[in-house]
Amino acid sequence: MYSVTNTSSKGTFLVIDDEPDILDAIARLFRKDYEVLTAQTVAEAWELIESHNVEVVMTDQRMPKMSGIEFLAELRKTHPHIVRVLFTGYSNISDVIDAINEGHVYRYISKPWKPVELRLFVAQAFEFYRSLRERDELLKQLRLANDLLEQQNALLSAANAELKMLDRVKNVFMEVVSHELNTPIAIVFGYTFLLRKELNDNLSSVASKALAGIDSSAVRLKNISNRIFKMLAEESPSATLDLEWVDLRKFVSSLHDQIDPFLQKRNQTLETTIAAEARSILADEDKLNDMCLNLLMNAIKFSYDDQAISLEIAPDKDDQELLTITVRDNGIGIPDEDIAQIFDVFFSTFNSGHHSSGQFEFGKRGIGLGLSVAKRFAEMHGGYIKVDSQEGRGSLFTVYLPIQPDSAITSPHADTHAQHAPH
Ligand SMILES: Nc1ncnc2c1ncn2[C@@H]1O[C@H](COP(=O)(O)OP(=O)(O)OP(=O)(O)O)[C@@H](O)[C@H]1O
Ligand SMILES: [Mg+2]
Fold first, then answer.
1. Both 76 and 37 in a single domain?
2. pTM over 0.90
3. Ligand 2 (ion): which residues have CB within 5 A?
4. Are residues 320 and 363 both part of a single domain?
5. Residues spanned by the domain of 25
6. Which atom of ligand 1 is closest in space to residue 373's alpha carbon?
7. Which of 57, 61, 375, 421 suits a disulfide with 88, CB 3.0-4.6 Å?
């Protein structure tokens, strides 16, 4: 016969002994602290284990059909989480030690016991059960978190691989486009040249206009192809600077000459100011020129006819080692939401309807390479670009460049140029 002392929400304690008196004594001792189940045979014990959430099992070693150790060894296989305790009166102590060493039994207590000792002993067994459960629960959570992390890692790696692949495809695509465009463009130029030569001065006004149109379209195509090619070359990590001392007055005058035709067509003016202290800068002149041209051409395109644009060069107020080149316009300005992206490659407000190959006409957006190239060039010099713009009011682009970039110390070209700045 087995019995149950029902005090739910307490830990469940199963005691097995073939002597009913001992079972009664133990049940009385523990009924306040645990739900105590008692069984006189192993068969009864199995029934209770199957029907209850037993946490600690304590069994006598001397049982009729099966020893306590054998039973606990079986229990370990089927219910490894139950804490197994053995008590034994006459002791075959070496069997008990083996059982503990083999892990079948958590602890043993010898009969007769003092009630205080037994209480402490059983309390420790329950405590052990709880710490094991907590450990298992923590491990489970850790495993879950780990799985989640692994899944997210796998997703990130996949996304990363895809991005790298797309970037490669983009570069290869652009390389092919810019390369493949060159041949047909050269052929178009060749044919217009031939036609002009063939017809000599006998071109009708329609034919002359058509040829001029073909030529200017081919020039635009060539410009686009060149810019893509340039951007790809500068994106490469091996891109280097060809540093030399650039006389700022000569430089500005050359810039002015280059954009003058466009200023005239838009009836715009360029005001230039060069601070007396700003004489020269150690820079890659071609890149410096490209950088400023891009900013100035933007100012022209995004300003209205008849407006003034300004270019100012001066040492930075806070840092005399820096030169600032400022291009200001009073044109259409840039919406706040676009500011963060205008330096991105191919950003030209991402509206294909706005794209046009126009170089200077009002509001004509290009392929969106100008600012990203300018930013890249500024960074190659150890500098940066800032923009301050208000929609409807105009824009202010400021390039900050070190007057003598650090790379001048290591650049192979630098030694010859860097030693004496022309003043
Ligand atoms: N001064 C400016 N005023 C207003 N908007 C500007 C100005 N400069 C640049 N932007 C905005 O930033 C975008 C990106 O400029 P970016 O110079 O990179 O490209 P783009 O001029 O359109 O084409 P590209 O320079 O390649 O011919 C422009 O399309 C325009 O929307
Ligand atoms: Mg531009």
1. yes
2. no
3. 298, 370
4. yes
5. 3-113
6. 18
7. 61
